[in-house]
Amino acid sequence: MEVLKALPPASVSILVTSPPYNLGIRYRTYADALPRGRYLEWTGEWIAAARGALHDNGSLFLNVGAKPTDPWTALDVAQAARPHLELQNTIHWVKSIAIDREAGVGGDLAVGHYKPINSERFVNDCHEFIFHFTPTGRTPLDRTAIGVPYQDASNVTRWRAAARNVRCRGNTWFIPYATIQSRDKDRPHPATFPPRIPEYCFRLHGVERIALAMDPFLGLGSSAVAAAQLGLDFIGVEMDAHYLAEAVARVKTAIAGVDKRTE
Fold first, then answer.
1. pLDDT band, very low/low/confident/very high, at 182 (cuts 50, 70, 90)
2. First to last CA, the chain
3. Looking at residue 196, what DSSP letter applies?
4. pLDDT surpasses 80 at 65
5. CATH number at 2-95+126-262
6. What is the pTM of this model?
7. What are the residue boundaries of the structural domains of the chain, listed by start?
8. Which residues contact 93 (CB under 8 A, 6 or more apart)?
């Protein structure tokens, strides 16, 4: 929070982040179990600081999860942001999905990764929220930067906006985790998102309008990796030295990959 407060006003174009959810997640150094009232007060404090640093046409993409026995967490966090920012879009990050052949696909389809819930009361939780907050609710977006092709392109020229044969992806993003061999080695953090999440956020906001991107809860650096791959200036903040070292290593690998592609 102190870094956010120290930044010049309106200096950050976009924040993409996933703060602690206050669900008792076992981080290395942070105790994720504040009293609910204090947690929401703290949420309002850091979001107020973020608003001070955010450009008037900026974006805050805030990823928040919940658990079946505490389903209001994400919505309470969104309410804590309400005094400071406008909720412009609510995006659903779908981690796993099942589609029956009756829906028009070739056969039954089940893709993605989820943590099974062993309960007689609750279904498996296969999604999280990504709240898109802006200062005024009027931040322009590059809606087709992460667009998807039309299934039937034969008639798209009737609509000027569809001339590129790409439509807005909408507010449901199916982004599964990559399959890993070792949790300790490949994903040594209990709550992280794939780099494609911040990549989509950056692209949707409009890469050409991003002077500075930021993640005040860096974790393993997925947002920094996405920023490096897109050539964006970036600030990341992380209190855990182990996670920070992992993030720096991943960003260096991402930059090396970009350099190799441009050789």
1. very low
2. 39
3. H
4. yes
5. 3.40.50.150
6. 0.89
7. 2-95+126-262
8. 63, 127, 128, 129, 130, 173, 175, 193, 197
